[in-house]
UniProtKB/TrEMBL annotation:
<dbReference type="InterPro" id="IPR013823">
    <property type="entry name" value="Ribosomal_bL12_C"/>
</dbReference>
<dbReference type="Pfam" id="PF16320">
    <property type="entry name" value="Ribosomal_L12_N"/>
</dbReference>
<feature type="domain" description="Large ribosomal subunit protein bL12 C-terminal">
    <location>
        <begin position="56"/>
        <end position="122"/>
    </location>
</feature>
<protein>
    <recommendedName>
        <fullName>Large ribosomal subunit protein bL12</fullName>
    </recommendedName>
</protein>
<dbReference type="InterPro" id="IPR036235">
    <property type="entry name" value="Ribosomal_bL12_oligo_N_sf"/>
</dbReference>
<keyword id="KW-0687">Ribonucleoprotein</keyword>
<dbReference type="GO" id="GO:0003729">
    <property type="term" value="F:mRNA binding"/>
</dbReference>
<keyword id="KW-0689">Ribosomal protein</keyword>
<feature type="domain" description="Large ribosomal subunit protein bL12 oligomerization">
    <location>
        <begin position="5"/>
        <end position="48"/>
    </location>
</feature>
<dbReference type="GO" id="GO:0003735">
    <property type="term" value="F:structural constituent of ribosome"/>
</dbReference>
<comment type="subunit">
    <text>Homodimer. Part of the ribosomal stalk of the 50S ribosomal subunit. Forms a multimeric L10(L12)X complex, where L10 forms an elongated spine to which 2 to 4 L12 dimers bind in a sequential fashion. Binds GTP-bound translation factors.</text>
</comment>
<dbReference type="Pfam" id="PF00542">
    <property type="entry name" value="Ribosomal_L12"/>
</dbReference>
<comment type="function">
    <text>Forms part of the ribosomal stalk which helps the ribosome interact with GTP-bound translation factors. Is thus essential for accurate translation.</text>
</comment>
<dbReference type="InterPro" id="IPR008932">
    <property type="entry name" value="Ribosomal_bL12_oligo"/>
</dbReference>
<dbReference type="InterPro" id="IPR000206">
    <property type="entry name" value="Ribosomal_bL12"/>
</dbReference>
<dbReference type="GO" id="GO:0022625">
    <property type="term" value="C:cytosolic large ribosomal subunit"/>
</dbReference>
<dbReference type="InterPro" id="IPR014719">
    <property type="entry name" value="Ribosomal_bL12_C/ClpS-like"/>
</dbReference>
């Protein structure tokens, strides 16, 4: 059985709120569905700062084509020796620093990206 959707839409435009509410309830009962928004979606939208992290891990995911500069940057950031810093740059992905503030993580990211590295904050 075909129906005229344009006709249905026109009828819905002219319906009162009470009529539309009754229609929704009837559809829910007939088909066993709910027109209510999922609770998880509503809770996530109202959460605000709940998902904001206190600390970040800075991961070098690609060292780029300026490895010597990347090694120097890693040494400055971490205080590691040449061999250890080179090891981190050579074996990407590698965590450069753990548990840092958002501000410090962004500074580290900016420093490493300036020498061609690709950084992920976790």
């Amino acid at each position: 059985m075909a129906f005229d959707k344009d006709n249905i839409i026109d009828q819905l435009k002219d319906a009162s709120i009470s009529d539309l509410n009754d229609l929704v309830k009837s559809i829910e009962d007939e088909f066993g569905v709910s027109a209510a928004a999922p609770v998880a979606a509503a809770g996530g939208a109202a959460g605000g700062d709940e998902g904001k992290k206190d600390s970040y891990d800075v991961e070098l995911t690609e060292s780029g084509d300026q490895k010597v500069k990347a090694i120097k940057a890693v040494r400055e950031i971490t205080g590691l020796g040449l061999k250890d810093a080179k090891g981190l740059v050579d074996k990407v992905p590698s965590t450069i620093k753990e548990g840092v503030s958002e501000e410090e993580a962004n500074k580290i990211k900016e420093t490493l990206e300036a020498v061609g590295g690709v950084v992920t904050l976790k």
